[in-house]
Every structure is written in structure tokens, then in C-alpha cells.
Automatic annotation (TrEMBL), chain A:
Keywords from the named record: FAD, Flavoprotein, Oxidoreductase
Cofactor requirements of the protein: FAD
Organism, scientific name: Glacieibacterium arshaanense
Annotated protein name in UniProt: Acyl-CoA dehydrogenase
Residue ranges annotated for the Acyl-CoA dehydrogenase/oxidase C-terminal domain, each copy included: 219-355
Tagged with keyword Flavoprotein: yes
Keyword Flavoprotein belongs to the record: yes
From TrEMBL, chain B:
Organism of this sequence: Glacieibacterium arshaanense
Superkingdom in the source lineage: Bacteria
InterPro entries: Acyl-CoA_Oxase/DH_mid-dom (IPR006091), Acyl-CoA_Oxase/DH_mid-dom_sf (IPR046373), AcylCo_DH-like_C (IPR036250), AcylCo_DH/oxidase_C (IPR009075), AcylCoA_DH/ox_N (IPR013786), AcylCoA_DH/ox_N_sf (IPR037069), AcylCoA_DH/oxidase_NM_dom_sf (IPR009100), Mycobact_Acyl-CoA_DH (IPR052161)
Name the UniProt record assigns to this protein: Acyl-CoA dehydrogenase
Segments forming domain Acyl-CoA oxidase/dehydrogenase middle: 127-221
Amino acid sequence: MNFDFSDDAKTMRESARKFLDANAGPAIARKSMNGTATYDADLWKAVIDLGWTAARVPEEFGGVGLTAEESCVLAEEAGRSLAPIPLTSVLAATEALLRAGSKEQQARWLPGIAEGKVIACVGWGEGNAASPSTAALTVKDGKASGVKLPIADLLGAQLAIITANGPKGVQLYLVDLGGAGVKTELVETLDLVRRSGKLTLDNAAVEALGDPDAYQDWLDRAAILAAFEALGTTAASMDMTVAYAKDRVAFGQRIGRYQGVKHKCADMYIKLELARAHALHGAWAMGADAGELRQAASAARVASLDALSFTAEETVQLHGGIGFTWESDCQFYYRRNRQLASALGSSAWWADRLVRALERRNAA
Amino acid sequence: MDFNDTAPEAEYRAKARAWLEANIGEYREPTEFGRGHADFVRHSKIWQKKKYDAGYTGITWPKSMGGQGLGPMNSIIYNQEESRFHAPTGLYAIGLGMCIPTVFSHGTPELIERYVAKALSGVEVWCQLFSEPIAGSDLAGIRTKAVKDGDTWTIDGQKVWTTNAHLSDFGIIVCRTDPSKPKHKGLTMFIVDMHAPGVEARPLKQMSGGADFNEVFFTNVKVHDSHRVGAEGDGWKVALTTLMNERLAVGGKPSHAPGYKTLMTLAAGIQTDNGPAISQSTVRERIASTYIADEGIKLTQMRAQSALSRGEMPGPEQSISKVVVAKTMQDLASFAMDLNQSSGVVTDGSNPELNRLQGSYMASAGLRIAGGTDEILRNIIAERVLGLPGDMRPDKDTPYNEIKAM
């Protein structure tokens, strides 16, 4: 049994963590929050130079051709560092092109992604209470009119991969953001570090990317990447809280001595490791194209959101009053928690998807 | 990344499976010879001897101790294969999982020679005499005393929660031998003959109705100094060896316990005011959370097996296992009984699946305490894994006989 990342993926994780520890983290997130730029251009350039956008792109399209495992560890480290760069959007979009794209579509977009000339983002939301299974935006004769929001990292991107209703159902479409009838603008969200946008299409050209089945397959893969991102954010939030509990004194003791505090930290760890087990299962299923992909992805999504929301909320709580201030870093995790929770469909939606996958498997 | 056996692992699995297929006999299907049945000991001894003769006992123990000298993966593989059937193995879990490893880690060559092989072949049954009415989580607070006179120790006191004490031939017992020292320092470990005069094991009826445990009374029980395990005053250190083995043993979910599939089957067959229970989002979320807990622990154990398979130590994430498993069992059973509405509380035997869940509900309350309570296990995660400071222990450095509760 070898249920663990490959040595190559582990090496990449270590080097990514080392780089982002030195060049990202809460201080850089704060700089981004206080600025107006849509992402940190210097950091993004450095990440491109390190080859992270090329990692997953096949060699024939100018990339390095690494496996899904490398994308998973990069997503985790991006999540840990709160890096204000569009890396996880690009990783998810790359996966969509790899899974659902024709050779022509891959040849058109992947080399630019690998080189860092194209920022690609993904979005399904339309600003109402619908789920990833539905879309009001409808494509007719290769054109669409309507709105998608919020789309993380939309501003500054050249390519958006969105969901819309096609002739066969809801599926992915490519939108060239430089095309006619395409408008992007900032949309304010709870996450003040990672900017989201609103995409308005006015009879704009859109291009089908695969079919409805390919969309569903991609959704599972995107959920696994998002789970790793959430794991990284959870771990950083937990580590910050544990460090504080070791340092802060109340009633003559470090607060980490109190079971009311330490047991919450233990629960963060328990939820984090349960989620990690499922995310790792997802990484395996993704790489092996396994039949368990949907159940592994759904469980990874639900478990990672449970770990993240609990940890982000208790991080503020265990820091006490100081944790509620603007100056404290707690708000980054608390806000990012909601961003990640809404990005790919709610936890309840994914719980239902998990049970449907289990029902199908039991029936088989 | 894969879930496959390595070639030597696959070979061992095939060998173990073939042996089990040829020898499992009447234990292929569930039997009534469970714990509490009059024939439990006889069946357990027959099965243990068969395994011993075939080389499937003490798989990870050194060959010098009569073991097979193999790695932890071999033991895991054998147990996986054995658990596909219903062989009676519970009688030896504590003796071979905890007591005898303590004896061969800390005992004299004479003790090893006398006791290890007979325990391994199943001839002699062992129990672990640690907890007392006054000391469970705070084990070092035990009161049972051993007083030395020449070469003989005299033990007086009471132990409790002693699994299989009434079926055991020997036990390892931790006693207070020097009450003038702080509580962790004045303890010593002994091997005690459970048939000796003055030893009385009384089955302790649990709230679940079963009687797996005993309270054991020691009145003027004589133990020769040759049956001391480890040095005088080293009892705590020796006990930690046992407890480390216990935490490994009480880790996973009890085999054949209800899980998320039970909940799915049940929910599919129950109608609510709003249609089948399985179609309700609250029910589906509970199925999902049960899956996440149960399968998450299984996958976490696979992470450990992957490390062991590479010859490395498992990571600290293994420490989450029992605290998740026990509470998940309780929550699942409770929710399942709720789904059964008014019949959830009825135990008249008319619904065997429901009865199994009710049994699981009762058992889970004990599992959350056995082998480290939920609270102690959270302390361990917080302190050993996350590095948070330990609880304040005002009695830690005080001589035992001067301790007053604050």
C-alpha cells in the first residue's frame, strides 16, 4: 500500500512552502487588502518563473507535464499562505482544459497558461441561490447574454471558464475575455484579499468546452483541488491559534493549558486530519481515473469545509477580543472560509452528491 | 499512489487467506460463542492453538520470544484476513496485545521463559490490572499497595474495569510500593496468579447489560519478588509500555459495528411525512457525516499502513482514531433510533437491525471511556501533537501520602 503523495509531489510541496513562507502569508495578504490591485503582480511573476503554472500543462503545450498530485500540493500551499495570486483559479481552469478540451482548445490556451501570459478563472454562480447543477445563462448559436458572479480572480484574467445551459444541459464554456460583448467589473465580497468579479455577456461569443458529463467530471476534480486549498488555509489558521495559546497568559497560566482551549485545538486537528484523508483519497482517484472519484471528491469537499469553518471560527474565538480587531490576522481565515465555502457549491449540496454517489455504488 | 499490496505483502496475504480458508471451519459464519457464552474460552483456546501451530501468532514479536519476527504489515494483513470471518479472538487481545509485550520488554529471562510461550499458544489467559475505583484517567493515583517482607510482597486493594479477569490465569498489576514518594515514583509492576488465595474477581455488570469487566479484590495476596516486572519504583514507566500498546489496540472501529451503510439501508425503508427518509436533506447530511468519519478513519489507517509498509513510523494523525470512532458510533445509533420514531426505544427482538443499533448505542458509551476517555485523548492530541502545555497538576511532586484534593 502506498497511500501517500509521490516523492516528487512532496519535494514540490516543500519548495512551495518554503517560497511562500518567505514571500506570502498574512502580511502580504494585508498589503493586498489595503491596495487596489486585483492580485500581487510581483508575487505572481515569481510563481510563473518557478514554473507552477506550467507544472500541470503537458509538454506538447509548453508545460512540464506533472501529475494531479503536484496541482494538489500547490493548491494546499496557496491556501496556507493566503497568497493574493490567481494560482488556484489557474490550476482549476487547467484541469478543465485537460479533461474537457479538444486538442485545438488545449493548443489555443494551455501554452499561454504555462507561460503565465494567460490567467484563467472559473465560475458557475449567477448571484442567486441556484446550485452548480443549474444555470440561467443560456447559449444559443454560440452566443450568450447574461451575468455570472462572483468569479474569483476574474479581474486581470484573459480567459473565463463558466457554466451555461447548452443544447445537452448545463456544461462548461470558454469565454475569451478580450472578445466583443464581454464586460468585467469588481464585485465586493466578504474576502477582501482575493478579489472576485462580475462577468456580463451581451451577445458574446462562447465556446463549448466538452459536454455536461465532462463538466460533472471536472467539478469533482476542482472540488479536490479546492479541498487541498481549504486544508492549507485550515492548517495555517490552526497553527496561528496554537501558537497564540502557547503564548497568551490568563489567570496565571498559558491559555493552552485550559481544556476549554486545548480541546478546541484538538478538534481542529481531528477535523483537519479527517479532511486530509479524504482529500488524499481524492488525489488518488483523480490520478487513477478511479470509479470512486465522485464519492472521494464529495467527501473531501464536505470534510474540508467542515474543518475550515470550525477552525476559522474558533481561531477568532480563541484569540479573544484581539482576534476581533481589524489589525488581527484572524479575519483573513474567517473571511477566506466563506469564499471557499461558496466557490464550488455549498457543503449541503456536496453532501447530497456524496450520498448519490454511494447510492449508485450500492445499487451497482 | 495506490492501495495495492507490495509483492511480498500479496504473497503473505495469499498464504494467510489460504490457511484461513482451510482451517476456519465453523467460524466462517457468525456463531453464538461470543464473549459471555459458556463455551467462549474453550473455542478461543482451540482457535489460538491452531494459529500458534501454523505460525500466525506473535507475528511481529521477535523470534527469540516465540514470535514470527515479521513486520507490522504482516500482522495487519493477517488480521484483515481473519476479520472476514468470525473466529473467537477477543480472549487474548489484552494478554498478547498488552501484557506479554510488557513482560518481554521489562521482565527477567526466567519470567519470559515461564510465561511467554504459554500465553502465545493460548494455554494461559492474561488480564491487565491497572484502573481502580479512585484512579482511571489519573492512573498514577492508584491506591492498591504491595508491601515487601524478605522476598515476598503482600498485595491489598481493589482493581476495576478488568476485562476477562474472571477468565484469566495471570495478570500484570501495578501497585503502590512507596507512598512517601510522589505518585508516579512509588509504583511497581508485578505478575500475579489470578488463582492465588485472596484474589477474587467479581463480574461487574455494565449499563449495557453485559459483563465484560470485573472488579478484582486483593486481600493479603502473596507474590514472590521474582515476579516483579522492572525495578521497584519503575511501575509507571513499565505501565506506559502497556498503555502505548493499548492505544494501538483500541484504535479502530469494532468490526461488524453499524456504519453509514446501515443508515442508508434503514433510511431507504422508512417513510416520513415528507416521503422516504433517504430523500430528506437532514438524513442525507447525516449519512455524509457518518461516511466522512468512518471512511476518514479507515483512510487514515491506510496512511499509517503505507508508512509501515515503507518501514517508517506512522504519523501523529493516528491519534484521532478512537475519539472519532466512538462518538460517531454513538451519533449514528442515536440518529438511527430517531428515524425509527416510536419503535426506536423498543427492544423486544422484533427488529434485529434496530436491536443491533441499540446495542451499538449502549456499547459506544463505554467505548468513549475505555482505553483513554475522549477528554484524555484530546489532551494527548493537544499536548503531544500540537505541543500545547500540559494541564496543571498540583499533586505531581507531592509525596503520595500527603496529597490533599484542592
